[in-house]
Each structure stands twice: as structure tokens, then as C-alpha cells.
Amino acid sequence: MFSWFKSITPSASDGLGTMTSEFGHMLDAGRHCFDVAANALLGGTDPEVIRKDLFLTDRSINEAEQNVRRHLVVHVSVHGAASLPACLVLMTVVKDAERIGDYAKNIFDLTPRAGAISTDSSAHSDLVELKDAVSAALAKTRKAFDSQDEDEARALVRQMNEMEDRCDQSIEEILASESEHNAPATLVLAYRYFKRVISHSMNITTSIFMPLDKIDYFDEKPRPEIP
């Protein structure tokens, strides 16, 4: 995306740099929301201890999204079409970043049923392992976006594709053997929400190397080829 910056004026680049910095805050805050919510669901953290922090952090994500959108409108009106492609990409990915916070809240909403997920079950162990992988992927998304390293972004998208498939397979297995689980609905929703966090993070990552018209489609099957 930032290859477009080379052809625009320094003042326009500075404005876009400010907005991408605010977007970076959204990514960090989204990862924090996911971490605290997933730990409350799987790690035994008292939900009431983190409730205020979670919702205040999510509110800061929403406010940052609104700020970026306002700045984008002003930016395009001042600098014109030269920076429009980068602005359109930012407009798209800020929504993905905002949705990560929303799905973190969905995960938090499962905490009243956390006790139904047996801590000595294979599903619990798998979700804990997946939680760590998702958190690491969110951190890598921020790193790749900052560096705009296309090779790094492609490798990360491949990893996240595998994580999505893992979620889908786990859901299918749970539904196929529902009687073996104490809380199939809770498990299915947990995997589903984890997958959506991965999907939105992947959409952000694809913006680094995919053309504007093709980002935001990597959570569909069959998936597009990674160029």
C-alpha cells in the first residue's frame, strides 16, 4: 500500500503517516482485547476484573476508527486523487481492525459458560494453543503492516489460512460428536469467534500485497491464490 506514498507530496505523506499510526494503535488495542477476553474464557481470569478494561479499550478502537475516517475525508478533499488508493485501503482495513474488538467482546460474552469447558479436555487444550497462535498472528500483522514487507505478509496469510482451516475442522468434529461434549455450543462459538478474529487480521495483512479490489476476500472458499 505505501508504494503509493512515493508519488504524492510530503505533506500528504505526513497526513497518511499520522493516520496509519492511529491505525497501529487499533491493531495493538484489538490484540489486547482478544488476549484478555480469551484468557477470561480459557485461563480462569475473573471476567469482572477485566470487564472495564476490555470495554474501554474497545471504545478507544471505535473512536480511533472514527478519527481515521474523518481524517481520510479531509485528506482526500485537500490532496485529491493522488492519495486516494491508500486512503481507500485504510478505509477498508480500519473496519477490519474495529471488528477484532467486537469479536473479542463476543468471546467475553461466553465467559458465563466457561466452566462448562473442561480444563482437562482436548478441546480446551486446543483452544489454549490456538489462542496463543491467534495472539501471535495479531502481533505479526502489526509488524508486517508497519514494515510493509510483502514476503512476510504472504507467509503470514498462509499461516492464518491454516488456522482458519483448523477452526473449521474443529467445529465439524464437535458437531459430528455432539454427545461427547458438555458444552458443544460454547465450543463451536469459541472456535467461530477465534476464526473471525483471524479472518479480519488476514484481511488487513492482504492489503500489504493485494490490489485494492482483491483484498477482503481471503476468508472465502475457494480462496484466491496468493500472488
Description:
- The protein is an all-alpha fold and 227 residues long.
- The protein has one domain: Methane Monooxygenase Hydroxylase, Chain G, domain 1 (Up-down Bundle).
- It contains 6 helices and no strands.
What is the gist of this entry?
This protein is mostly helical. Helix content is 74%, strand content 0%. It has helices spanning 10-42, 47-79, 84-109, 122-147, 150-176, 184-206.
First and last CA, distance: 15 Å
Average pLDDT across residues? 85
Provide the helix percentage.
Answer: over 70%
CATH architecture: Up-down Bundle
* CATH fold field value: Methane Monooxygenase Hydroxylase, Chain G, domain 1
Report the strand count: 0
Tell me the β content. Answer: under 5%
Topology:
Elements lengths: L9 H33 L4 H33 L4 H26 L12 H26 L2 H27 L7 H23 L21
Helix pairs in contact: 1-2, 1-3, 1-4, 2-3, 3-6, 4-5, 4-6, 5-6
Can you give keywords for this protein?
227 residues, mainly alpha, Methane Monooxygenase Hydroxylase, Chain G, domain 1, 6 helices, 74% helix, globular
